[in-house]
Amino acid sequence: MKVTVLGASGRAGSEIVKELARRGHAVTAVARRPERIPEAPGVTAVAGDVNQPETLVPALSGADAVVSAIMFVDSDPQRLIKAVKDAGVPRYLVVGGAGSLEVAPGQVLINTPGFPDAYRAEAEAGGRFLETLRAEPELNWTFLSPSALFDGSERTGTFRLGDDALLTDDQGNSRISFPDYAIAMADEIETPRHPRARFTVGY
Q1: Which pTM value belongs to this model?
Q2: Confidence of residue 38 (pLDDT cuts 50, 70, 90)
Q3: Most distant pair of Cα atoms in the chain: their distance
């Protein structure tokens, strides 16, 4: 399968690139600084800027799927969606955020007491991005939200999937590592189970 990853030099993007390459997919890895993209068999590093989406179309054309692993505050969902559609890519998958996940019926994480101000702008932009996708009438999109704590380098291969509710363990912790998140994303690319929907992953 041919997959283009935008934001391929970031922590989530680089792990997704490595996971897809590990599985034998042909990956076009796009970043403003392609020299930071991890080298691997089947990976082609390409320079690209999401603020100039018209320059992305050549990197997207011919892909079976596009993964967007870009900070929401640094991107415009309408422009990215247009670039994907202009390139004729059938599937668009987004590295989402946890802020829009429900912690109780009608209550989302970003609105809970103690939500860190440092992450608020990104979380708000992520929520707007998700709503833009939900209003998109044509594109086959998937939005994969991580757990509240998105960090770590361990690759366990053991995790749970959910829909719109924040996943927590028995102690109330909500976490997923970057490599395990990448496994869930690669699984969804290979075997689509959440077309035009958001889902989440956690321990």
Answers
A1: 0.96
A2: confident
A3: 47
- Secondary structure tally for the chain: helices H, strands E: 5, 12
Confidence of residue 55 (pLDDT cuts 50, 70, 90): confident
Segments in 64-170 forming alpha helices (H): 77-86, 120-135
3-state helix, strand, coil in the chain (%, to 5): 35, 25, 40
Residue 54, amino acid: E
Q: How does DSSP classify residue 167?
A: P
Segment 104-128, tens digit of pLDDT: 999 999 999 999 999 999 999 999 9
Contact 181, 15 (CB under 8 A): yes
Return phi, psi of residue 4, to 5°: -105, 130
DSSP secondary structure letter of residue 147? -
